[in-house]
Amino acid sequence: MTVRRCAVVVDPLGTGQEYPAAFADAGVETVAVLSTPKPIPLYAASWHPENFAAVHVHDGDLPALAATLRGYDPLCLIAGSETGVELADALVDLVLPGTGHVPALAAARRDKWAMATAAADAGLPHLRQLSSADPAEIDRWLKDTGLDRVRLVVKPPKSAATDNVHFVAPGGDWRPHFDQIYGHTNEFGLRNDAVLVQEYAEGPEFLVDSYSVDGEHGLVDVCRYTKVRRGDRIGIYDLVDFLAPGDPDVAAVWPYTKKVLDAVGIRNGCCHTEVILTADGPRLLEVGARPAGGGHQLISRMATGSNHILRTVEHRVRGTFRPTYDLVQHVCSVVISAPHAGVWRNAHLFDGVADLDTYALHHFYFGDGDELPAPAGLSSMVGWVVLASADRPALDADYRRIKDLERRMAVERGPHPS
Question: Which residues on neighbouring strands pair with residue 166, listed in sequence order?
């Protein structure tokens, strides 16, 4: 197929599936590149090849793929999802030199250990952590640093969506979590060849969405994450709440985040950065060099009138750049999780959520009689309800009503009856 002018999106999956329509609205076609012959199971349902002018699959021959893509005379080459970040970084300077990020820092935009190292090398305050495949090395490091007596987090270095993130109490045994992670395939289809052990950061967590042009960083939105812990599993989403750009917490995390973006080499495109605001100041958790996922683009647009996808089109097609955002209404996403694994017996409990004063939309992945997963990362959520209003107290009241319903969920333990 002949394409006059296009945008190339590597792994346009998950949130990345929104790119074709956004570019089409600006008169630009989209070409898809898959990093693997077929999408990983996590993204399989979001793959719509019919939405693209052409589809190419990376077969290991990077120069040949780059030559093919140059033939389209593309406007840009960008990552659509987490699985596409590394291939997009490898391709962009072969196809459109100078339009991506800093090549030498590519690892720091995908691997959490490399991110932390880049932040440390830039002189930024950071959490103490170590990534290793050797439990003995981790044990020695914990004792040498005194971290064997404090709270810890154990997780894979190259996964996302709170996949296999575990909490370890002071003096607790981290080794079972090491064994659960190391050598196993994570939700993004990668073998965990190491395990990251990190000091626990106390304080509220923020998602800082940004869009950068030639190294100048613009603020897309800032959200406060409320997460809960169930047993040893942390990072279980409870609430995603948008902040006004003038909020004091935004003033606390944005200057630090801009330095993180420089440290990991972000120059052109989307990024979302997760930061804990500790008593000693902001501390980096991780960055994602692609649009924020999990339905975030929808609620970001509801709250601010824009999002990562639209900022990308504005920059790549129209050459515009926005330094900040406006909060046009209060928006939050309330995440519903099961109390434990088992069979759900009262899904009708949530039948009335659409009657709430601040209700905007909702989606539930399970219903009566379905087997619910144990609460863990994003992939284990039962459903979500988005609330939106100019009336902040009314929105807060509806949030409390939804959480009261969540506490009344009847989930029967044990195997599903045959």
Answer: 154, 233
